[in-house]
Structure prediction request, 421 residues.
Amino acid sequence: MVEYRKHILDNGLTVITHEAWDTPLATVNLLYGVGSRDEDPRRTGFAHLFEHLMFGGTRAVPDFDAVVSSMGGESNAFTNCDYTNYYMTFPADGLSTALRLEADRMTDLDISQKALEVQQKVVTEEFHQRYMNQPYGDVWLLLRPLCYKVHPYRWPTIGADIRHVSEATLDDVKAFHEKHYRPENAILAIAGPVSNDEQLHLAEEAWKAKKTGVPMSGATSKSRSSIAEPPQNEARELRVVRQVPATKVFIAWPMCSHNDPMFRACDLLTDVLANGKSSRMHQHLVMERGIMSEADACISGEEGPGLLVLSGVLSQGISPDEGIAALREEAMRLANEPVSEYELTKVQNKYENTYIYSQYKAADRAMGLCHYTWLGDTDLINREPEEYRRVSVEDLLSAARVVFRPEHENRLYYEAERQDS
Prediction:
């Protein structure tokens, strides 16, 4: 059981405190409600760019990392479609300093032309290394716009076009920071061997002296209505040729949003298909039929309408069409035949074990408190395994029949370039 207290400061900042007496370390986790979905289609990649800019320092603290290191701590961040998350872990006696650092960079980030140019180069290099120069690296650059036609999930966090970042002006990024990096658009979780009252007091002190302006009513990502993706009425496909070791095929189906009751059933469907060597796809497609060397299934996991994706790396001599047909066959079996109680219990047990382990560290608990608060129900951090246990065989069958429809398929054929002998 993760015990916590939740407060909202006068400036709109949500603060969650958690006493963690099982560790000498403290964690500050700060989630901003801004992800790639909040970007202008003509200026994508900004949320990820700010993940980098936020470590550039402020007028009061020019070198953020140096101060964190001097505390004996470490910090990092990540960006997804829905939010950007910053986290810092350090000896507990540094909690006051850590909170002041976060308050300082929320309100007084030093975005100079030089700092912007440095991070534009860093992000551009990351784009080339991670997305263009890695086998299958550009999959989401291809798959997202295939699946989404109007929703801002149609581009990945790196952006739809890296030129949007490289051509950004100082005024562009300052306006983005002013709009999204505000206390009313943020959730702060603190975890460590410090009382709840002291944690809250230190947070109030850190932000008390910061002038954050008048709260922008309706400006937060959670309060903005998202563009609705129209229903998909026919299958789509894309074929590309790349210099990769082997051909890989994908089928993505649109699925529900995170808060939909069907979400957990979709998640468990992918576990039935591809969680471990006893899973269906590994047994049927890799071990028995040998048509794939790797087979995987996942959900994209966004807060809004997501994707359920099956994929496989094809064995030599297997055509892309054969691979797609094999993935479809596994999906349709789930839509036509209920899974056994044994299969369901197995994947529920695996989920619960993984979830419990993921809450072992206080830092992970702090991150989870922010995440579930973002979703609108902080106490899900304690109820999530129970909610997964509630999913029935009938729920899985119903979800499979809703999701695995032929007219909803988005097929990506990622073919290996032929090598002339």
The chain is about 40% helix and 20% strand. The CA atoms of residues 12 and 184 lie 4 Å apart. The radius of gyration is 23 Å. Confidence is low (pLDDT under 50) at residues 213-221.
